[in-house]
Amino acid sequence: MNKPCTNRLIILLVIGFCCISLVLPFSLAMLWSLVDPGHPWSYPHILPPVLSLQRWVDIWTTTSLPQALLHSYLLAPCVALCSVLLALPTAYAFGRLEFPGKQAAQLISLLPLIVPSFVVALFFSSLLNVLGIYSRFLGILIGQTVLFIPYAIRILSVSFSLIRQEIIDATRDLGGGPITVFKTAYLPVLKPGLLASIIMIFILSIEEFAIAFVVGSPDFVTVPTILYSYLGYNFIRSNAAVVSLILVVPNIFLMLLMERFLKARNTAVITGKG
């Protein structure tokens, strides 16, 4: 098989995989969200007999979805900011310094990713009660921050490691102070990593369920808790499709924004030139 045929085959396989894993589920979710409540979609109908936006209207007006959206989009930026700020010193040490036990410390920093999220949620729920912290918002903020710090550490460690020492030395030799060194040598390289960390943790916080459910219920409702209520004992596929689209679609645009920014900054990251 010649090279052009091989390339076409690979492209077709990639397109097929994307259609199966992305386009098909998204299309089905959209169809289920448009099923009219008075005309169920069932066998032998290939497509919904009647399409309408009634389920969207019903969920928005009869459930706590508006409040859940407000809670989720207030919580996520706070979690992202706290995670990135707390991760910066550790990321600097992993990316710029050499010290005994560095590899072990890097491994330990990833442990929150190994522990099941419900175990972390139950631990934090008990810990918050012992400490006398009864604010649902603050409890979820602390739990999600600890859960997502490893992502920020990993991304920012790579960003710190890409900073060129000769640029730092040259800036200092020219009389630049700490602020000038940071603006000239560090910031241009760190920008993509900072933005990627913030967007990634923002998305993870929006989609996180275990801590939000265990610590926040029943007073502090987020979008995933509403979604899982439709996926539980009283399974309502159309309602779940509506909430899942509300949850996923903004995150898709955020991921595209992160990818576009990283591509635009690719040269700066590799060369250290801002």
UniProtKB/TrEMBL annotation:
Recorded superkingdom: Bacteria
One Gene Ontology cellular component annotation held by this UniProt entry: plasma membrane
Matches recorded under InterPro entries: MetI-like, MetI-like_sf
PROSITE patterns in the record: ABC_TM1
Gene3D superfamilies the UniProt entry points to: MetI-like
One Pfam family from the record: BPD_transp_1
Gene Ontology terms describing biological process: transmembrane transport
Alphabetized UniProt keyword annotations: Cell inner membrane, Cell membrane, Membrane, Transmembrane, Transmembrane helix, Transport
Domain ABC transmembrane type-1: 69-258
Family to which the UniProt record says this protein belongs: Belongs to the binding-protein-dependent transport system permease family.
Name of the protein in its database record: Trehalose transport system permease protein SugB
